[in-house]
Design goal:
Pfam families: Lactonase (PF10282). The chain has a single domain (about 5-255, about 350-360), classed as YVTN repeat-like/Quinoprotein amine dehydrogenase (Methylamine Dehydrogenase, Chain H). Helix content is about 0%, strand content about 55%. It has no helices and 31 strands. A hairpin with a 4-residue loop joins strand 14 and strand 15. The chain starts with 6 loop residues before the first strand and ends with a strand.
Length: about 350
């Protein structure tokens, strides 16, 4: 290292892309913590299309689309996350199923994954830190009023509640399903606290506040954000608000992702159709208030927040990745462009890697 070498602090993140045979795979990036600049670092080609990325501890869990139809394809792939590289550690397949999200139990002895296409939740034992097999599959049987997206169950999210209950959203059935983890590590539905959302809402993603007292559900079909008080599995709705402004969007809108700031002060959401990043402040009672909005590239589909300052947005339609800055002390708007934008073919999923890494410029 030379006398005049300069260093910078970066955060690493990964993007899965379902592009062509040439550019399909997983890309790694630096995000400059001082400027918000996105820097492409590496690429690992994959034979199948990645659909989901879920990080837990030092492990990254990827779901790949089964494009071959073979029973041994698809499944959950477990990787060791080593800065810019992912090293394959285990792979679990089950009847060729494709999984869109993976959750690891608090004791790290079982994993759970949801299959959007077949309406299933599976349990996978973990031995010596690695996924072993699918030991149980729960078939969901919901449906609702939308003639396209709700003819059958389509689980879209699986998360751990603050009290360690497992929450599954079923967009196809307009349901919030609550599960307990039994002594064997299997999921047992809490019938008392599971409930139906408004017909035709289409719940897609859920986040819990830092205090654990509030839950925020993003609905794909009716474009609403629902706010709930949460206590020991019980959800009580206290607010429902649109994710965009009707007068500013000419066509259909789909909210595609949302994040909470680490300090719990704001919630942000991206809209496909309106093509916006919208920021809400979180009030003392858990409800939200829209405070700013900025245009994104066409068709935003993934959103991340770094250091409560930098938003990273991918857009599959335009094939780009871009960053925005949150300046909380500004009087006239607090969302700003960084003008950092890179082309990226077919981004579909994202996950954070190592944070606060010091590297040479």
């Amino acid at each position: 290292m030379g006398l005049f070498s300069r260093t910078k602090n970066v955060d690493i993140f990964f993007v899965g892309c379902d592009g062509t045979d040439i550019d399909r795979g997983v890309y790694s990036f630096y995000l400059d913590s001082a400027t918000g600049e996105i820097i492409k670092k590496s690429f690992v080609k994959s034979l199948a299309n990645p659909l989901s990325m879920s990080k837990s501890g030092r492990w990254m869990y990827l779901g790949y689309r089964n494009g071959s139809g073979r029973a041994t394809d698809g499944g959950v792939w477990q990787y060791s996350c080593m800065d810019l590289q992912l090293g394959l550690a285990a792979r679990v397949s089950y009847e060729g199923r494709t999984y869109i999200k993976t959750l690891i139990a608090p004791d790290r002895l079982h994993g759970y994954a949801i299959d959007y296409y077949n309406g299933e939740i599976v349990t996978m034992p973990i031995r010596y830190s690695k996924l072993v097999r699918v030991s149980e599959a729960i078939k969901l049987n919901g449906h609702s009023i939308d003639p396209i997206k709700q003819t059958e169950s389509h689980p879209t999210d699986i998360v751990l509640a603050p009290d360690h209950k497992v929450i599954v959203l079923d967009m196809g059935g307009d349901q919030v399903l609550v599960y307990d983890i039994d002594e064997r590590g299997y999921l047992k539905q809490d019938q008392e606290h599971s409930f139906n959302t408004e017909a035709g809402s289409g719940p897609r993603k859920i986040l819990f506040s830092n205090s654990g007292q509030y839950a925020y559900i993003m609905n794909e079909i009716n474009s609403h954000i629902d706010v709930y008080q949460y206590d020991s599995g019980q959800f009580t709705k206290i607010q429902s608000t649109l994710s965009y402004l009707l007068e500013e969007c000419d066509g259909n809108n789909i909210p595609t992702d949302m994040v909470l700031l680490d300090d719990g002060s704001h919630l942000a959401i991206i809209n496909k159709g309106d093509d916006t990043l919208v920021l809400f402040s979180i009030l003392d009672d858990g409800t939200i208030k829209r405070i700013d909005c900025i245009e994104t590239d066409e068709g935003p589909n993934n959103l991340m927040i770094f250091r409560d300052r930098w938003f990273v947005v991918t857009s599959k339609i335009t094939g780009t990745i871009e960053s925005f800055e949150l300046r909380s002390n500004e009087k006239r708007g607090i969302l700003f462009e960084t003008h950092s934008r890179l082309p990226l073919h077919g981004p579909v999923c994202v996950a954070k890697g190592t944070e606060n890494l010091r590297v040479t410029r």
